[in-house]
Amino acid sequence: MTLLMERQMQYVEIYIQLLGDEEGTLRPTQAIPLANGIYRILATPNYDPEDEIWEFLPDSLVRCEKRNYRGRDYLLAVEKVG
Prior knowledge:
There is one protein chain. The chain is mostly beta strands. The protein is built from 1 helix and 5 strands; from the N terminus they run αβββββ.
């Protein structure tokens, strides 16, 4: 995918589980929707793999499921694909 194509894509917010965190923290980040619930994860501007361990790394293809927390819908990355 070229840089121009990426800039023309619409991004959506998805959430990634942080590993090693006892509280079950989710990290919001941007992703590129592909098809059938599959997304390409983009890193946050301050992403630091030394600071946080994401369940799925940036640039991974993941399947997301719609979840609800306190009346708010969100997309959660649940499975790596491809």
